[in-house]
Amino acid sequence: MRDFLKRLPPRAAAPDERQSNLGPARVSGHRSAMKLYEEKEMEGRKKAFESAVLRWPGITPAKMFGTPCYNANGTFFASLVTDGIVLTKLGESDRAALARDLKAGPFQPGGKTVSRWVQVPYTSPDDLPAVLSYVRKSYEAALAAPAKRTQARSGKRPRT
Question: pTM of the entire structure?
Answer without folding.
Answer: 0.72
